[in-house]
Specification:
The chain has 333 residues and is an alpha/beta fold. It has eleven helices and 15 strands. An eight-stranded mixed β-sheet has the order 2-3-7-4-6-5-9-10, sandwiched between helices. Strands 11, 12, 13, 14 and 15 form a five-stranded mixed β-sheet that branches. A two-stranded parallel ribbon has the order 1-8. The protein binds threonylcarbamoyladenylate (TXA) and magnesium ion.
Amino acid sequence: MPIGTSIKTAVEWLQQGEPVALPTETVYGLAAPLGSVEAIQKIYTIKRRPANNPLIVHVLDINQLEKIAVVNASARVLCEKFWPGPLTLVLPKKDCVPDIVTAQQPSVAVRAPTQPLFREILKILKQPLVAPSANRFMQLSPTKAQHVWEGLGEEVKYILDGGSCTFGVESTIISLLSEEKPQLLRPGPISVENLSSALNRAVSFPKNREKESEAKLCPGLFKKHYSPQTTLVLFERLESVVLKSFDGRKIARIFFKKPNMGCEKNAFWLSEQGNLEEAAFRLFDLLQELDGQHWDELWIEKVPNQGIGQAINDRITRAAYQESSVGSGSASN
Ligand code: TXA
Ligand code: MG
């Protein structure tokens, strides 16, 4: 199993043009140097990712950002306040960024991670690292080295183990292509309220991304995404009653907090006390774990829609999305 803790090995593979899985504070990324088009091409192949879905570039700081993107005043404010951290900025790209990274778009998505191992590798390589989440297209994002191994296997030459990711959900993405109209493209650990107050203006969140024009804003945000293999059904609220099975199907229920009932083998929760940060940290890990057991369906309830709760609700809504359920309401009661 190619899991280890050697920064040296990770760097050697990267220098040989092989993508390497690296921990970040959000989720594990599948990384390649910005200058290695060959390695970046392999990322798309390993992930089975469509070529029209651009990648996030990871830098050390605003100085490195300035080499690859046109930095406006709003970007400066947000870097000052939230970098390094789980915030990705979409800005006009400079010519040195290869088209394969941005899927031919004139913009580039960039963030500066806090994860110390990741930062160490950025310093050694002296160039940015391109890194999407280290999962196959449409599947759950990995928050542990083991998840990367289970999802991608031998196709990745090395997985640098940095333990569990601190946040457990992907970074917030904001487009600053228009400074007058900043747009949230993906909710994440940095809330829209925090962004609005730092910028001193409203940040909009285009909801109906399925419309073609909006899908183009952030090509990777599909209605269905981040999915386990087992059918996931989303509820506004799950009843804390004993439920062994439903119509003969074996159901695992995922509550936000520990339900007020006796011990049930099919009841799980994201956070015993109902803490949103803990719920985000546990979400993908618990879904991965239950997906590996023999449940017919997983039922999950929404969490309070505030702070990082918005990111959790976004991910579970996409994970539970069924093309056939549109309009019937059956999957989102
Ligand atoms: O937390 C994270 O952001 C993690 C870690 C590894 O850093 N990365 C991550 O990457 O979530 P990925 O590829 O799974 O998601 C990147 C998203 C995609 O939805 C993609 O469409 C969007 O960012 N994106 C990338 N470049 C863009 C651009 N120029 N304009 C709009 N959206 C962009
Ligand atoms: Mg992803």
